[in-house]
Amino acid sequence: MDCNTGAFPNLFVTGLILGMLYALIALGYTMVYGVLKLINFAHDAIFMIGAASIFYLFGVWFGLNEPTGGVVLVSLIAVGFLVSGLASGGSAVLLERLAYRPLRRRGAARLSFLIAAVGASFFITYLFQQDFLLGTSEHNFPGFMATESALTIIGAQVNNRRVLAVLTAVALFLILDFFVNKTRSGRSIRAVAQDIDAARLMGVNVDRVVALTFFVGGFFGGIAGFLYGMVFSKVAWNLGFFPGIKAFTAAVLGGIGNVRGALLGGVTLGLVENLSTLCIGAEWKNPIAFSVLVLVLIFRPTGILGEGLSAR
Amino acid sequence: MAATPLLELKGVKVRYGVIEAVKGIDMKVNEGEVVTLIGGNGAGKTTTLRAISMIHAPAEGQVLFQGEDITGVPSHEVVGRGIVQVPEGRHIFPSMSVYENLEMGAFIRDKGDRKGLGEEVERVYELFPVLKERRKQAGGTLSGGEQQMLAIGRALMAKPKLLMLDEPSMGLAPQVVETVFDVIAQVNSEGIPVLLIEQNAQMALGAAKRGYVIETGEIVLEDRAEKLLGNDEVRKAYLGEE
């Protein structure tokens, strides 16, 4: 087998960055699973909405396609985080209200939730494929942030968009860790995840906690959508397909329901799929990523760190 | 003259699908009392408590608390009104520390008053010193007896107006059962009314002022606790006498 070892630095750095984005998306799957034992397969569409919201706001409505800098750029990024987070977080809460809560009220079987989730994913994705929304073609991401080389790590050039993506992901993980472990709302999420009846008996409003969980997962997924769209300079109706299913893989790999597992699983998957192309063709990247999923499910179904939002 | 009972059940029926688990019961708890509801497995004891907590609301009938109809209000509001339940099987949050479990107990009134919370925690530690030793340990790693103490301590953190305990003695060693019942007596002596559900009728009737006997979803007897202790049927059915 021929291995192109010279490509290692680039692939390593790319894997790390992509892995952080997978991890950020994986949070949405893992938190909802932790609380409801439900795989929210519509999270890929929620992620896409984050990117789409920025495409509309900055690209279509304000036409911010020229590079900006300084305070303007920083403000645009901040507004971008807020808008993409709120768009996706809001959509996730709406989805829970319309699709999942009625099923919960009826005490529906797990399979019903799964079918509803897959259906919701298709519904939102194909809604955005319609001509009055994104349509079938791919769009450029608004170019308000120029791509320029920012720094060099182990000989690999890393552009500023990627640096932003990684720094944001790290910051968001720290914020989430604090939120889940140190705040009253975070405690209520952990309580519901560990024992839903006991949480009710402590006076926790379970519906509110579920909505909050969808919102937080959606919020982070939306920011991930914004960053992903910017790093790959594209927005499309099917933007969520591969990142979504890979983030799901990452969540399972790290231990679904486990916040730190999402980070570990995301980075591991990003590195594995990128470094695998050192020795075999890049066209094998996706099959390898999904082989990882199959192998985990066979040999360690609870993931590297085990299940449970509870785990600290 | 009869004051308004603290808690009153009027014709409460609870259904699981087509099965009627509780078939129209009337019950009362007055201020300051320890009242026990005894009965065998599957008689409807836990179902009755879950109905009062509105975890599984009654299909028919009314639950009144401090004279107000609380039938069908969301369960977190029931807790907000001061009805706090220590559930069967304890339901400790397994991955939270003992301290965090106690904090969760005060969830409804935890609005950032950390100092007030600290005083309550100290009080629980006084009642159950072992919890103080274990305060950083995960709830799931405690022994059954310690978990029961934590479950009661956690409920006290909510400052209940009515404390409901579901089978607190289940699966515990005799001396731990003693500790638990001592604490129930102490809590009650401080003015907190208790509704106690037990299969251990001897202990329960010893601790209570009044008792109800439930069989297949219906109240078959109600009396002062010492009279129930002397009742032949009760002695035969629940105290293991021939």
Give the tags:
heterodimer; A: 312 residues; mainly alpha; ABC transporter involved in vitamin B12 uptake, BtuC; two-stranded antiparallel sheet; B: 242 residues; alpha/beta; Rossmann fold; six-stranded mixed beta sheet; four-stranded antiparallel beta sheet; 10 helices; 10 strands; 37% helix; 25% strand
Plain-language structure description:
The complex is a heterodimer of chains A (312) and B (242). Chain A has helices at residues 8-36, 43-61, 70-105, 110-129, 160-182, 184-194, 196-201, 206-231, 241-254, 259-275, 285-299, and strands at 149-153, 156-159. Chain A is mainly α and 312 residues long. A two-stranded antiparallel ribbon of chain A has the order 1-2. Chain A is globular and about 55 Å long. By secondary structure, chain B is α/β, with parallel strands linked by helices. Chain B has a domain at 7-91 and 159-238: Rossmann fold (3-Layer(aba) Sandwich). Chain B has helices spanning 45-52, 75-80, 98-105, 114-127, 129-133, 144-156, 174-189, 201-207, 225-230, 232-238; strands at 7-16, 19-29, 34-38, 60-65, 68-69, 83-86, 162-166, 194-198, 210-215, 218-224. Chain B is globular and about 45 Å long. In chain B, 47% of the residues are buried. Classes of the chains: A mainly alpha (312), B alpha/beta (242). The A-B interface holds A 184, 187-188, 190-191, 194-195, 197-206, 308, 310-312 and B 53, 55, 74-76, 79-80, 84-85, 87, 91-96, 100, 103-105, 107-108, 110, 112, 154, 158.
Proportion in β-strands of chain A: under 5%
Looking at the structure, what is the overall shape of chain B?
A: globular
Number of helices of chain B: 10
Helices of chain A, by number, come to 11
Quick rundown:
The complex is a heterodimer of chains A (312) and B (242). Chain A is an all-alpha fold and 312 residues long.
Write the layout of secondary structure elements.
The complex is a heterodimer of chains A (312) and B (242).
Chain A lengths: L7 H29 L6 H19 L8 H36 L4 H20 L19 E5 L2 E4 H23 L1 H11 L1 H6 L4 H26 L9 H14 L4 H17 L9 H15 L13
Antiparallel strand pairs in A: 1-2
Chain B lengths: L6 E10 L2 E11 L4 E5 L6 H8 L7 E6 L2 E2 L5 H6 L2 E4 L11 H8 L8 H14 L1 H5 L10 H13 L5 E5 L7 H16 L4 E5 L2 H7 L2 E6 L2 E7 H6 L1 H7 L4
Parallel strand pairs in B: 3-8, 3-9, 6-7, 7-8
Antiparallel strand pairs in B: 1-2, 1-4, 4-5, 9-10
